[in-house]
Amino acid sequence: MLKEKPATFSGIARAVDLALIVAAFAVTAIGCQDATHMMVLPWLRGIAPQQEVLHQYELLLLTSLIIWIAVTQWRESYRSHRADHLWPLLRDQVTTELLWAMAVAALTFFFKLNIVSRVFLLAFFPVSIVMLSARQLAVRAFLNQARKKGLNIRRIVVMGEPGCARKFARFIREEGGPGYRIAGLTTFSSANSGEIIKEDFDEAFLTLESAQADLECAVLKLLKMGKRVHIVPGLFDGTLFRRNLEEFAGVPVLSLGGYSVDPVEAAAKRLLDLIGASLLLILFAPILLLCALWVKLLSAGPVFFSQERLGRNGKRFRILKFRTMYPDAEARLHADPVLYQKYVENNFKLPKGEDPRIVPGGNFLRSSSLDELPQLFNVLKGDMSLVGPRPIVPPEIGQYGEYGPLFLSVKPGITGYWQVQGRSEIKDFSHRAALDIGYIRDQSLKTDVDILLKTIPAVLRRKGAH
């Protein structure tokens, strides 16, 4: 079994990345054809070019390498990613690369490297980002394959009360990836703390249910043996809450809650809503017109459907959709008690193909999500956001119980976690509510952009839309 040597591996990874930046610099210089870059080619071939050009490009390369070291050190990019999932890992990698590119561009301006071509920079950064990201993905794929074959495995013991130890061990098996293997579960006390460290293992996770003296004794013995120790501050269902590790008077504490975003990010989110909704209305203007004609020609009644929904802080507003049901749809629903009961039990929807309220052609508008395009006007007005929890009718708020005020603390959205993960295929109300509250927990400008990007394939697949 290979033993992990983080310092050695991180040093190799850093050296490889620095070499890739140099390679990207050379590839960009060779690939560019303007006169400025042709001055760089002789330098790459060992021929002396104009001295000023050489100095500026040398300074650019040196700055790029130093900034990469600084940014990756700040971002802790070379820590162990053994337990990280793919997309969060790739997102962090790309974020680091973009910060590096912006810092290099800013210093290029600060140092007044006027000879350095802007075309060169615009090519150098993408080439570097692609090469660095490819290195990260290749290393991850190689290590995953090695770990599946039993190489480079970290053996773990979990110590604590039996129930909590088993629960946390199950969590490691499900979320830790192929790089970890449970070597044993055990309790500890002052009497048997010498026995718990006889297993062959690399790391220990200790839960905090035992007496403080027992815990301190076990931690000291493990640390003296050179083992890495992780203290789990308690096991409870905190998945619905935003969590931060903070300090209170010098003591580390796990803080929960704090769902609101800061004013700057809130303003950026509103700007994204305004710009995004405006661009989408311009882009889809012909489709909006065709949908309006479609609804008008296929059934008598208004083009738009308007219904009261709950917005931020419980404010009521009228949501806009293209009408896909008969004008007396609500009366038809409430007139049939059996149908209404099925509607309530199915998350306030009727199963596909069983809804007598839908007009001819309405199913297509709903499955393609075209009926929701008028909600862009609600976004411009400020009642909704592009991304947020699903807007609900007032009677539904009771279904959220104690989480009702939390759910109403943000604007509802056209799209969100529920929409990109299956919509009507998610039949369990508690699951849908958890997805909505999960967005409230994770809300940020980055989260909104991620969901918007996921919405495109979700709409094209038309999964769960009816």
Overview of the molecule:
This protein is an alpha/beta fold and 466 residues long. It folds into three domains: 6-148, no CATH class; 154-235, Rossmann fold (3-Layer(aba) Sandwich), CATH 3.40.50.20; 263-324 and 359-461, no CATH class. It is 53% helix and 12% strand. The protein has helices spanning 6-31, 35-38, 40-44, 51-75, 86-110, 118-148, 162-175, 212-224, 263-283, 285-298, 329-335, 337-345, 362-367, 375-381, 404-407, 417-420, 429-442, 445-461, and strands at 154-159, 180-186, 203-207, 228-232, 243-248, 251-256, 304-310, 316-322, 385-387, 413-415. Strands 2-1-3-4 form a four-stranded parallel beta sheet, with helices on both faces. A two-stranded antiparallel sheet has the order 5-6. α1 packs antiparallel against α6. It starts with 5 loop residues before the first helix and ends in a 5-residue tail after the last helix. Mean pLDDT is 79; it is low at 1-6, 34-41 and 190-194.
Give structural attributes.
3 domains, 53% helix, 18 helices, four-stranded parallel β-sheet, Rossmann fold, disordered N terminus, globular
